[in-house]
């Protein structure tokens, strides 16, 4: 029986915990002034190099360089009388605060900010910019106005907003009781919205996102898209399934003249489908939209739209990411309208005559220029659009399937999504950053294989950005700064998108990482820039699609590291070897007389663990040269050569006695293991787990085997390899005389 261990967990290669992110200067966290920050919304302002954070009773302006230094703060709490009034309405104390839910760039010098104001929404303008040394950041008292219709009352109410050309588009519940969900546009003169109490337009909506996307160069033809979920209703108005919708209006919609006054005259919606085919022919649908990310392209007309969805089932929570193209979205809106005779009938395509101009089109030159405003549209058009707001065809995702799936039950919940487009040697990649409910950001790429019509997910890194497990509420990418800004109730973290040198110093490590940000430059794993950016670059080795290290890194292997480990006869000994990648399969070999044999499962004394090869009771005959080899993606790499010496019991006792009594020990020291602190913890726990004596004994035992650091250092200075110990059957004689590169102390 051969044995080795596969440590592929969820196919991820690396796990980065808070501690290492801090130590590596890859992250900074802003936690405010002690009180729980509770960020509600964030806004990136690359022009002023600031990140604005709308929180509970406060608004912050953070430095994009280091979020936790040089921040500015505006306190904006509700007044005592407002809080009292809120409590009188029967609300709880924590709800009766000013939670800032709307934060938009109003113009170059001002932000529009709205808060819940203890269930009495308010808005104001905030001055931002440079004045000499000081970064300007001040609320303009004279601009404070009512926030009704621009901000929800309830801090937990979903809302999504976007500001374009001085107009605020917002989807929200406009009333105290949360009965009136609406898609609205506000400027200083008009307020345009969906109909009140029209379940055909919106039915128990949950608002997720919005975007302004031009169709062509005629700005009068610009469309505003809203992403939300809602319920389908049946004949009796009884609620049925939840669907994800993409809704659309013309940005220049002025409403109707006689009917639909101050109401959208162009509102239409289509269903967004994200599903996988099941073996039994039944598709699994992911109908609950959790988050949406609009990945802009150069001309702004054809962004890629990423949706993070979950299943609506209460028992099984699965997640999927789907990508939508504007062509498919436009095709759905240009296709047939949906029609049903009665609410309990099936939807069919509407086949009768459709009035002119086509309902849902904008008053623009592109559309013939026959109408200067929607107010001139014939009543027939308005009536039609009002009664047929649903498109018959749904929008299907790219490749008709999700690019990413998480369907095992009991796994972490996925909450947020942001995407970066990265140029690599072999093409463009979407790097997905997915926030979870336990403070983790997953960094993932997905690769489509055309030949097999399959999707490969590669989990590049798992970044734990907050110390305590809290849901990630917001992720913003700054491609310019190559930073990620992550919000949760405890603070705002900033994380560098990549840290290539962490993949290792070898070509193979770098190549197997398959991180499109990184390539091996001949010396190190470093940031990859496409040709032309830095013209002097020499050849860079990178293969994101296949991670073919065998081909790319042929002849570039570095000799395996060598280590000397002492074991004490009849006691346990760990030959530590932890591969950098969690996807590497580890194999152990014993070198014997010039040949190497894979370590086989002879007896139960030897266990392969995720930390290395563990001898429960080492024998003198176990001494020899062990090789720790990893196989990943077909690439074989010898990581370590470990020389195991086995010390005989009495010698050890004597050595320890002498060491403890400050006597010089001239022979070999038994401070035998060269483990890192992490492995020591693990080792200790493991010994207890396998019933190796009680906790006290294990503690004593470990202390003695490792000695104190001071003694270890002392021992290292004094230690001269003597070769005097009993070494089983002369194995590895040859190699054990070679001076090891690394000895006792790691
Ligand atoms: C992190 O930053 C500190 C202070 O600037 C510096 O001393 C330390 O060496 C840095 N650590 C790494 C791993 O770059
Ligand atoms: C931005 O808007 C404010 C308020 O309307 C106005 O006072 C200010 O001049 C505007 N700034 C610019 C640069 O237009
Ligand atoms: C707001 O109103 C003022 C005066 O009525 C007008 O000059 C200005 O253009 C309006 N701004 C927007 C964005 O409509
Ligand atoms: C150094 C040390 O802990 N030696 C122990 C090794 O195992 C034998 C038998 O279990 C013990 O008697 C020794 O004390």
UniProtKB/TrEMBL annotation:
The keyword Disulfide bond applies. It is found in: Secreted. Residues 710-719 have a biased composition (Basic residues). One of its GO terms (biological process) is neural crest cell migration. Transmembrane segments: none annotated. GO terms for molecular function: chemorepellent activity; semaphorin receptor binding. Residues 530-629 form the Ig-like domain. This is Sema domain, immunoglobulin domain (Ig), short basic domain, secreted, (semaphorin) 3E. It comes from Monopterus albus (Swamp eel). The lineage of its organism: Eukaryota, Metazoa, Chordata, Craniata, Vertebrata.
